[in-house]
UniProtKB/TrEMBL annotation:
<dbReference type="Pfam" id="PF02687">
    <property type="entry name" value="FtsX"/>
</dbReference>
<protein>
    <submittedName>
        <fullName>Lipoprotein releasing system transmembrane protein LolC</fullName>
    </submittedName>
</protein>
<dbReference type="InterPro" id="IPR051447">
    <property type="entry name" value="Lipoprotein-release_system"/>
</dbReference>
<feature type="transmembrane region" description="Helical">
    <location>
        <begin position="239"/>
        <end position="261"/>
    </location>
</feature>
<keyword id="KW-0812">Transmembrane</keyword>
<feature type="transmembrane region" description="Helical">
    <location>
        <begin position="282"/>
        <end position="315"/>
    </location>
</feature>
<feature type="transmembrane region" description="Helical">
    <location>
        <begin position="339"/>
        <end position="362"/>
    </location>
</feature>
<comment type="similarity">
    <text>Belongs to the ABC-4 integral membrane protein family. LolC/E subfamily.</text>
</comment>
<feature type="domain" description="MacB-like periplasmic core">
    <location>
        <begin position="19"/>
        <end position="213"/>
    </location>
</feature>
<keyword id="KW-1133">Transmembrane helix</keyword>
<dbReference type="Pfam" id="PF12704">
    <property type="entry name" value="MacB_PCD"/>
</dbReference>
<keyword id="KW-0472">Membrane</keyword>
<dbReference type="InterPro" id="IPR025857">
    <property type="entry name" value="MacB_PCD"/>
</dbReference>
<feature type="domain" description="ABC3 transporter permease C-terminal">
    <location>
        <begin position="242"/>
        <end position="364"/>
    </location>
</feature>
<feature type="transmembrane region" description="Helical">
    <location>
        <begin position="21"/>
        <end position="39"/>
    </location>
</feature>
<dbReference type="InterPro" id="IPR003838">
    <property type="entry name" value="ABC3_permease_C"/>
</dbReference>
<keyword id="KW-0449">Lipoprotein</keyword>
Length: 371
């Protein structure tokens, strides 16, 4: 083993340029892959946080007409009764402005409802309404304007615009509005349908929902209602990872090419070693160790370069147009699992690429070569 490692290191030192290029190829591939995954993590986390600005972590629908009390739970930060309905919002034409009309989901919140969405700064009051930013543009309203809300049952309620909110999720900003619970009761004849719940950890919504539901509530976690979004983001990350991993695969083929050339160049030396008593395993181990050393050093270099690149992007983030995206910059979120998975996959690719020169070294016949 020591003899094989000595020869492997000697071979790598003999051609420093080729060795350095092989290491750099693996390192750049690993670094780019890690940076891309970290940016994808940051974008996904940013989109989820934007959605949860105006979307409940957990909804508990009541089975009966009477709303039972909600049991305490250590994960619950805030809860409030709610009722939601679809309504047609109309701003009458006045002062040279044409009428504005659009449909929206009115979410009526009971006592403590403002604390469910602290980032929106809601201050609900009877007869008031907060509109999504895109909905404000569609209706052409300003704070203090009066809207007419009409339900499917032709009930009408006048509402005063108290303000607007912006989450960055266009579906919420263009189709959601918040009112007090009594407004929804008057408009649609609905009593409280259940509770909206804010949690300390939104990702535990399913677990907490099952603990609170019992036989009194039907739980609905945000992961269930936003499943399509989460699946799209997960698919995007997998596809991006596969595409960029091809860079690592190309670098691994470069390692295979380097080792094949070494086997061809060292064929007389291999034959001489075999004639002096070295086994096939010893000879093959030399080139296997060369591939292992290149893979380990390349992956280590790639991890270092990837970490520094992610650190740079977090300190000097890539700017995004605020009018087009909900984020003004592209955030970075490094995860240890990504570093471990990328390192393992890159080492495996390098090892598999080393099998070709290894097989070629095994086939060298010392008698034919020396003759």
């Amino acid at each position: 083993m020591r003899f094989a490692l000595f020869l492997a290191l000697a071979h790598l030192k003999r051609r420093p340029l080729q060795t350095g290029l092989a290491l750099l190829g693996i390192g750049v591939g690993v670094a780019v892959l890690l940076a891309a995954l970290s940016l994808t993590n940051g974008f996904t986390d940013g989109l989820v946080r934007a959605t949860l600005k105006a979307y409940p972590h957990l909804v508990l629908f009541s089975f009966g007409e009477e709303l039972p009390p909600l049991l305490p739970h250590p994960e619950v930060e805030q809860s409030a009764p709610f009722a939601a309905t679809k309504a047609l919002l109309v701003r009458p034409a006045e002062g040279g402005r044409g009428a504005g009309v659009d449909f929206a989901t009115l979410v009526g919140l009971g006592e403590g409802g403002e604390a469910l969405y602290p980032e929106l700064g809601l201050k609900l009051e009877p007869g008031g309404i907060y509109l999504g930013a895109a909905l404000v543009q569609t209706l052409g309203v300003y704070p203090g304007d009066t809207l007419l809300a009409m339900s499917a049952t032709q009930e009408r309620v006048r509402l005063r615009v108290l303000g607007s909110f912006r989450t960055g999720n266009f579906l919420l900003d263009s189709g959601y509005a918040f009112v007090d619970l009594k407004t929804v009761e008057a408009l649609a004849g609905l009593k409280a349908q259940g509770y909206q719940v804010r949690l300390k950890d939104p990702w535990r919504a399913k677990e907490v929902g099952e603990a609170l539901a019992g036989t009194r509530f039907f739980p609905q976690a945000w992961q269930d209602t936003q499943r399509t979004l989460l699946e799209q983001l997960s698919l995007q990350k997998r596809v991006l990872g596969i595409l960029i991993f091809l860079i690592v695969a190309v670098a691994a083929l470069g390692v295979a090419n380097l080792l094949v050339l070494k086997v061809v160049e060292k064929t007389p030396e291999i034959a001489l070693l075999r004639a002096m008593g070295a086994s096939r395993l010893t000879v093959g181990l030399v080139f296997a160790l060369e591939g292992a050393v290149l893979g380990l050093l390349g992956v280590a270099l790639g991890n270092l370069m990837g970490y520094l690149l992610c650190l740079y992007l977090s300190l000097r983030p890539v700017g995004l147009p605020g009018e087009l995206y909900f984020l003004t910059h592209l955030p970075v979120e490094m995860r240890l699992t990504d570093f471990l998975q990328v390192s393992g996959a890159s080492l495996l690719a390098t090892f598999l690429a080393s099998l070709l020169p290894l097989a070629r070294a095994f086939r060298v016949r010392p008698g034919v070569v020396l003759r």
